[in-house]
Design brief:
single chain; seven-stranded mixed sheet; 10 helices; 33% helix
Length: 403
């Protein structure tokens, strides 16, 4: 039988070790291990995307954590370090405490959360958590960075205010300063609408009129076909005052996708649909982002989402800190993560790092249409004495977070 040359045999063995998390390549007694737990929640039945082109995802978030583990271990093998991931998924409204305990029983010392805010607060208050650090990779609620902040809670997903500020900066750059606002009747949409109003005031825009979409999330308006939609929406918005842009607040994606090209006035649609502010987008390809996109697609067989990206950033934060310090000890890793030297390449043009006052990851925000990234915020001209990235979200002097 023909044998492979030595070099090819070495590469084949190395590739196998990579697929096994490199644990086979190093003697077990010399490897220092960081064990993480990913804690997610099943998608609610009423949260399916409005467009049939968008896939229904049941592995959102955890796939980003898996890729982060692979990326960490590609470097960790040379440092006698290893990253291990355990996973738990809670039914919608299920017992997050029980799932947390299960991860801890498996040795998880760090938790990556894909939970909504209410469930995440349950985790932070659970006695089993101890002094373990939790990375919030899914909840945008500003209260988690404010009154309900916690010294052991870090945020790799941007807050609603960061996203609203990023969009407002771009609209300011375009001089689209008169906004008409349409928001849904869910709690999330009402909170987002208020955040958008505050961003408009902060950056010198004016909301000239607003309306609440009257239908419930389950009342999809497609039953009558596009003929009914193209009659209903123009009538719904025709009494809004003259405006430059129509801003949609629809976090649950149950009506906003109907508005582009159906408005009374020929105006762009922005917000949660149309032109959006987002942590990550499948069309993003600058600054080496294609490499990350391709690695993710190979692993998950789909596009990376913002929640996947948030989980990836959380895992990579630990990998970067452990590699730079040469330690897996909790205090050494956290001290470096919060230090001025910490910089993580996030494929966003500028390195990302953590704010000391609320543990939010400062990061550029993509301004993207459905198929192409239009811009990246912070925009040119929006300055800050520390870094332009701190022009997005609550700054140190205005935070309500008190550790």
């Amino acid at each position: 039988m023909r044998t492979l040359p030595f070099t090819l045999r070495w590469l084949a063995v190395g590739g196998l070790a990579a697929g096994l998390g490199w644990s086979a390549a190093l003697p077990a007694d010399t490897v220092e291990t960081i064990t993480l737990g990913y804690l997610g929640m099943e998608r609610p039945d009423d949260r399916e995307p409005l467009s049939v082109l968008d896939p229904v995802l049941d592995d959102e978030g955890v796939q980003g954590a898996r890729l982060g583990i692979n990326d960490n271990n590609a470097t960790a093998q040379f440092l006698d370090q290893e990253f291990v991931l355990h996973e738990a998924e809670v039914a919608d409204g299920g017992d997050v405490g029980e799932a947390l305990q299960g991860l801890i029983d498996q040795g998880a010392d760090w938790i990556v959360s894909g939970l909504p805010a209410e469930a995440l607060l349950e985790v932070m208050a659970h006695p089993a958590l101890g002094d373990r650090v939790v990375f919030n990779a899914g909840a945008p609620d500003d209260v988690l960075r404010g009154e309900s902040c916690h010294p052991n809670l870090y945020h790799t997903t941007p807050s609603r205010r960061m996203l609203a500020d990023a969009l407002a900066q771009f609209l300011g750059y375009k001089q689209w300063e008169r906004w008409a606002l349409v928001y849904g009747n869910t709690d999330e949409d009402r909170v987002l609408a208020e955040t958008l109003r505050e961003a408009a005031e902060r950056y010198g825009h004016r909301i000239v009129g607003d309306k609440m979409w009257p239908h419930d999330p389950m009342a999809r308006r497609a039953e009558g076909g596009f003929h009914a939609i193209q009659r209903e929406i123009p009538v719904f918005v025709q009494d809004l005052p003259e405006h430059d842009v129509l801003v949609i607040a629809d976090e649950t994606d149950y009506f906003g996708e109907y508005f582009p090209f159906q408005t009374w006035l020929p105006r762009p649609v922005v917000g949660t649909q149309g032109l959006v502010a987002t942590a990550w987008h499948r069309a993003h390809e600058s600054w080496g982002a294609v490499q990350l996109q391709r690695r993710f697609e190979k692993l998950a067989d789909r596009w990376m989402t913002p929640r996947d990206f948030g989980a990836w950033l959380a895992v990579r934060s630990l990998g970067e800190a452990a590699a730079r310090t040469g330690s897996v000890e909790r205090d050494a890793v956290l001290d470096y993560m919060l230090g001025e030297e910490f910089e993580l390449a996030g494929y966003l043009g500028l390195p990302v790092s953590y704010r000391t006052w609320n543990h939010q990851l400062r990061q550029p925000i993509l301004i993207s249409g459905p198929r192409m990234v239009a811009s990246v915020s912070p925009q040119e001209g929006y300055l800050h004495p520390r870094t332009p990235l701190d022009a997005l979200g609550a700054d140190e002097g205005e935070t309500t977070c008190r550790f």
